[in-house]
C-alpha cells in the first residue's frame, strides 16, 4: 500500500565542470503530461506548506535548492521523504495527503503538476480527506 503513496524518481544528471544540468521530460522522466509548474520559496523557519490532497492531479516535487521533507499519507500508511537533490523528484499520486516542512534556508520547491489549477480538485481539511478516502473504497 505504501508504494501507492509516492516514490522518488532519479532524473538524468549531466555532470560538467562548468555546472551540472538536470532535465525532466513529460511522459519520459515524469510519468504524466505536465500542465502547470509552480515553486515555493522563502518559507519562514517552522512553517509548513501543502496540507492537502488532490482527487485527480498527480504532482512531481523537486528540491531545486536546499532541502525539505515531504510526508505522505493515505489515512493508513505514512511515508516521509527528505528532498535535497535537484536531480531527484518525488512523484505524488492522487488521493494522497501531503505536507511539506523542515525547509532549509534558501530552499526552493518546484512542483510539476499534471492538471491546471482547479480548486474543486483539492481536499484541504484532513477530516474531510479521511471521509473521502473511506467513501472511495
From TrEMBL:
<dbReference type="InterPro" id="IPR014710">
    <property type="entry name" value="RmlC-like_jellyroll"/>
</dbReference>
<dbReference type="Pfam" id="PF05523">
    <property type="entry name" value="FdtA"/>
</dbReference>
<keyword id="KW-0413">Isomerase</keyword>
<dbReference type="InterPro" id="IPR008894">
    <property type="entry name" value="QdtA_cupin_dom"/>
</dbReference>
<dbReference type="GO" id="GO:0016853">
    <property type="term" value="F:isomerase activity"/>
</dbReference>
<protein>
    <submittedName>
        <fullName>dTDP-6-deoxy-3,4-keto-hexulose isomerase</fullName>
    </submittedName>
</protein>
<feature type="domain" description="Sugar 3,4-ketoisomerase QdtA cupin">
    <location>
        <begin position="7"/>
        <end position="133"/>
    </location>
</feature>
<dbReference type="InterPro" id="IPR011051">
    <property type="entry name" value="RmlC_Cupin_sf"/>
</dbReference>
